[in-house]
Structure formats: C-alpha cells, structure tokens
Amino acid sequence: MPARWNGWTTASTAANPSHDLRHHQLVRGSGCEVWDIAGHCHLDGVAGAANTPFGHAHPRISDAVATHLRQLTHVDETLAAQQPAEELVDTLAALTGLHDVVFVNSGSEAIEAAIRIAMDYWRHRGQPQRDTIVAFARGYHGCTALAAGLSDLPILRTEWAPAPRMRHVELTPHHRPDEPGAAAALAGEFAAAITAAGPQRVAAVIVEPFLNVGGGIVLPDGFLTELRTVADSFDTLMIVDEVFTGFGRSGYAAFAVNAMPSPPDILAISKGMTNGVVPMGATCLRHSIRNQFGDAVLRYGHTTSGHGLACVAALATIDLLRTEGLSQAAATADWFATDFPQCLRTSGIVELRTYGVVGVLECDSVERALAIAAAARQDRESSLIIGCKQNALMLTPALNTTPQQLRTMAAHLKRAVENTSLYA
Questions:
Q1: Domains in the chain, please, with CATH?
Q2: Helical H runs in 266-353?
Q3: What secondary structure letter does DSSP report for 220?
Q4: For the segment 90-113, what is each residue's pLDDT rounded down to a tens digit?
Q5: Which phi and psi angles does 68 have, rounded to 5°?
Q6: Contact by Cβ (8 Å): 398, 32
Q7: Omega before 53 cis (within 30°)?
Q8: Sheet containing 202-207: order of strands
C-alpha cells in the first residue's frame, strides 16, 4: 500500500499503523479551530505550523487570493515584473527598514540565500578568507544542507552535509533573561567566539530572537542591540532569523528587530508571511550589501520565487497585521505574560516561560513532554494540538485567538499535564 513518509519521522514510525496520522486527517478550519475527517473539533494551539498568525480560512486573505487566481498565474521574475511583487518589496522595506529583498519559498531557503549573500559579499570586498559563521549551538535555521550545517542540534547532524566553518555559542549560564547584565554577557560570548575564530575569518553572526526548535529559549531583553554593537566592532555582518518570530509572533511589533536602534544587515523571514496560504519567504538586506555586488549575478533563485499568488497573500496578511493584528498580538502577548504562568504550575514542569505570543512548558524529560502532548489530543471532542520541541511543550496560537479560547486551551493543557503526572 502506498504510504507517505512525512518529514522528521523515522522509517519505522512511517510503517507503524499506530503512528499513522491519517486518522487525524484535518479537512477544514476556522480561526483556531480545525475539524478532522470524523467531524471532531480540535483547538489548534500551534497555528498550523506557527505560520497562520490569523488562523485558518481568514476571509480577507482568502478573498484576495481568489481574486488574483482569476487574473494571472505566474511569471519568471528574471523576464518580467509583476505588480504584487513590486508592492510587496516596498511594504517589507517599510516594515523592516531593509530596502533590498530576495524572494524565496521557505525559511530554509531564506537562510540559504542569507549565507550565500554574506559569503559573496566578502568575496566582492576582496576578503574571501571570511568563511566562518558564529551562531548559537542550539539555534535552528532550517533543513537545507547549508542551513542545517549552521546548527549543532543533534537532529540535524549528518555525515555529509556541507557547511561553512562554524563557531557555536552555548547558552549556559546566560539564558536566564532576567539576570542583570545578561544581554551584554551573552553578546560577549559572541565576541569571544569571533575572537577565537579570528575576526578576519568571520563572515557573519546569525541568531534567532527566540530559540524555537532549540527548546523554546527566551533570550535577554536588549540582546539583539548588544549583538549589533559586537558585530559592528568586529566589522562583521549580523543576520537575524525571524522565520518564527516575524509577523507579530514577538508580540508587540511586526518583527523583533523593530526594537533595535538600527536593523541588522540581513533579515530572514517566512512562516507567517502569507498566513500559511502559499509557501513563501524572503531575505531582506541593506543597500550597502547589494551594492557591493556591482554587476555580479546573485547566483540563487527558484522557479516560484516571488510567485504572484504568494505576494498577494503576503500583502493581505500584512494589511491585516497593520490594521488589527498588532493590537491583537499585543493583547494576546499580555495574556501569556500575566495569565499563562498561573495556569500550569504542577509537578513534572521545570519552568514556565513566555515570549510574545508563545507559552513554553519545560518538562523534566522528553518522555513527559511527549506524553503530555499526546494526552492533550486524546479527548477527541475537545482536544488541543500543541507543539513539542525536545523536552519543551510550546503553545503558539494565532495572534487573534480570543481570551476565552486561550483560557480553554490552558484548561485542556493543564488537565493533560495533571493526568500525565499521575502516572509519572
């Protein structure tokens, strides 16, 4: 019988009927609610794949996409321009402060483009020896060969993936965001890594504002600004990966980098860009980096880069973000900061922490985290879908989830935690 082998699963998992996800097949959704093929409703606590900031089937986005579908399918961006793509460049520039944009199809591709651009930038400046990237060991920047090589997470290690030279920064003891001086101390670890690698060898530093796959790690306030200072002092590029945190997930702005006095050199974005309607990502960069290329070709691109339908979906999503989404994100972030920690204090939970529209439950083991996530879905009439990153459970709902829906999600999660702890 033909079988789909899903990403991030083992061959044995894919072949085991007990792990067959087809009985969880989802057929429709509205907001933060989704229904499976049997008609059961589930609360979507992960916003699709953290890529539907305004939930499922939002009419303003769906209508914009439907209208475009009747007009034009796609054009090769090397042969002709299209109005939605040109408008989206201007819109992103206004949001990010970065005025050159490379369109791609995913977060991994956005990082791939960012690293290629950074490396070629130094070659065009006559410094080809700059071949080293400094990053968090627990960072995650995608699963293409180059992007995966930036991380030191065990799940991404292979024997064959090519990668730039790497210097990794560990979090301990600076991952406690409330400790005085934590931001400067953590940025100092990057300075030490650059010094150890040799400043003349370092092409860029790359970080996420919040370590998603790395375990739901909250970084100190002001860390990005401190790291900007470090990068400037060593004359190296700063790349920020906002694939996860962008488009309101950070809670109080469109992007976490909006809180910096000046933007990074390169910004990678994706996930919430089109509200999950069409795959899309982008690499945004400073004019000074593009100008260094002169007449040299950017040796990177995809058939569907800057797809018109994706650009229309992105424009509709950003319009929604501007008109009501940011206020909704701020209100939801306030709920997480004040109410979420009060909901879930019980045995087996090492730490509760929040970041914008994200709630994290760090468990005492991977096994407990997986058991809680499974228990949250067992009530087929009112189950909760929640993410699991190593031993951390993560609630990442849509930005416009109502207070009542948030309380219901928390109640389901608390019941799953308590029921699981009975058998620990």
A1: 11-57+324-421 (3.90.1150.10), 62-321 (3.40.640.10)
A2: 287-293, 308-320, 326-338, 340-343
A3: P
A4: 999 999 999 999 999 999 999 999
A5: -65, -35
A6: yes
A7: no
A8: 100-104, 281-285, 266-269, 237-241, 202-207, 132-136, 165-169
